[in-house]
Amino acid sequence: MAIYTRTGDAGTTALFTGQRVSKTHPRVEAYGTLDELNAALSLCVCACACAQHRTLLESIQLQIFWFSAELASESEQPASGQRYISSEEITALEIAIDTAMGRVAPLHSFILPGRCEAASRLHFARTLARRAERRLVELSEDVAVRHVLMRYINRLSDCLYALARAEDHDAHQNTIIREVTKRYLASGHSPSMKESAMSLSFQELHQLTRSAVERAQELQVPVVVSIVDAHGVETVTWRMPDALLVSSELAPKKAWTAVAMKTATHELSAAVQPGAALYGLESHLQGKVVTFGGGYALWRDGVLIGGLGISGGSVEQDMDIAQAAIAAINVRTHQ
């Protein structure tokens, strides 16, 4: 059976009532734009990583069919038995918006649309939803359009924006996890009996702490000294009198970061800048990571045995104190 009818060759099309109108009629422009939107949503379904997002988008595609069918009719109210958009569908969109936006950090400026394919497609669909809204407003100037349709299409563009933000967030977080894992594995080797047996001795912990305090006293900078083992577990924290209260938070984070990333904290600074491989690392780990100087990974014979964090002075002073302490025992700051 042929799909062509030749009835539209003159530039007209038929509404559900059978009436023929121009293909540029505001009613046709409105439901034609919804048809574009629906096609774009199918690409979003294919690209989205989140199963809940895919399910939601498929339900929205069905709702767009109901929406288009209503616009293709001259009736101001949906016919009996016809599916139509109601406040229930709007509520579902609002719930989806709140859920998606609750997973991402708030923004205070405009953003470039999409850092992953799913988010890019969702942003494109969002612009089509906005165009459909403009076409609907134009149509409403000539014929009665149910207000719930105006509310729905407005909320839909907000929902697509929220889903795009969430997909971007998830994709970027997965990228960071892969990059951290790659760096961690690249700088180490498989656990062995030798590795599990190597750790900082009590005497070394004492010497590290004492040497750090002595250097801090020479510089007249009260600091907090924190030492963690190879698993990031805190083993020693010493606070000098008059050290800043915030240093009690920062020193352990520096030591933990150095072990978690297997590198000195000051070497992470470039990697977390916009566009770099670990951009967003601090926010994704909720501030647990520190990317300025004062934290050092401690190695012996190619094995990570702990981390040292110093906080209380300037970045340069913290690094100076840490390096003086490390020089007092038989460890290295690189593998």
TrEMBL record:
What Enzyme Commission number(s) apply to this enzyme? 2.5.1.17
The organism's superkingdom is given as Bacteria
Q: InterPro entries this protein is in?
A: CblAdoTrfase-like, CblAdoTrfase-like_sf, PduO, PduO-typ, PduO/GlcC-like, PduO/GlcC-like_sf
Q: Give a GO molecular function annotation for the protein.
A: corrinoid adenosyltransferase activity
Q: Does the keyword Nucleus apply?
A: no
Q: Which UniProt keywords apply?
A: ATP-binding, Nucleotide-binding, Transferase
Query: In this protein, which residues make up the domain named Cobalamin adenosyltransferase-like?
Result: 3-166
What is the annotated signal peptide range for this record?
A: none
Q: By what name is this protein known?
A: Two-domain cob(I)yrinic acid a,c-diamide adenosyltransferase PduO
What organism is recorded for this protein?
Citrobacter enshiensis
The root-end lineage is: Bacteria, Pseudomonadati, Pseudomonadota, Gammaproteobacteria, Enterobacterales
